[in-house]
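One such given next:

>
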Amino acid sequence: MSTPHFYSIGAPGQPWGDTERTLWRARQVRQRSYADDVLTAVERLRDRFDVESYGKVSYADAQHPVEKFPLMALRSRGWKNSLPTVLVTGGVHGYETSGVHGALRFAETQAAAYAGRVNLLVAPCVSPWAYERIQRWNFDALDPNRNFRADSPAQESAALMRLIAPLHGQFAAHIDLHETTDTDESEFGPARAARDGKAFEAHGIPDGFYLVDDTANPQPAFQQAIIEAVERVTHIAPADAKGGIIGSPLVAHGVIHYAMKELGLCAGITDARYTSTTEVYPDSPRATPEQCIAAQVAAVCATLDFVCHESL
């Protein structure tokens, strides 16, 4: 359902320019600390992983002093090229909290069980400026999860692609941890429509966990293994009245398809056989923040269990 323009920045039918982006940026308020929440947690894991900075993002304009954020990744100690490699990413959208903390929780509590069976590369918070503002976009009003492409204008996306470039051909799987929230339709969807000069189209927010598989490379058995693991932790989103989720047809229990590479999605960057984007619903009356984090951990573990079984 398309609705008339109602976002308070911009004019109907006109994409934003520099003035509108500056107005939008002025509204973004720092609400939490990437250093305290993420970098401190990464440092605690230094005795178990090889910790590396894979770059930094740096932002400033006439109204904002320079802010710099180091981008950190955890890499398996004792990396063996003979083992399958799995990429875990969180915080591509900084406001999707359980993706960040799910990646960190997995690294802290579960990763050791897979030592010697897989190589792990974990980027727990891809978009730190947005993490601090509880925002979907980066400083430039760009969605990192639509900008994983050559010559990306999104610093966060470009840095992650540089990190994984030397490992192309080695990845067995990539799981990208996300959330779908009520603010997707109260704030971020309308903002996107206004930014692009389009009408906002509402699809409704699914109540529960679901997965996004790759249209060009569907792996139904892999997706089902994740769904079965997560279903022990939290509920799976049902189909809406049209038989879909967020405007896409339901292809299996809790699974939809997106064209990952075509859309510039993070889950399309590795050319891995097995890829998935998780989506938990933290605003559900049937789920707690802890359940959302546990669901992300369960999804990562199910990914690794599936890869380990397939490599036998």
Notes: Residues 71 and 233 are 30 Å apart (CA to CA). The chain has nine helices and twelve strands.
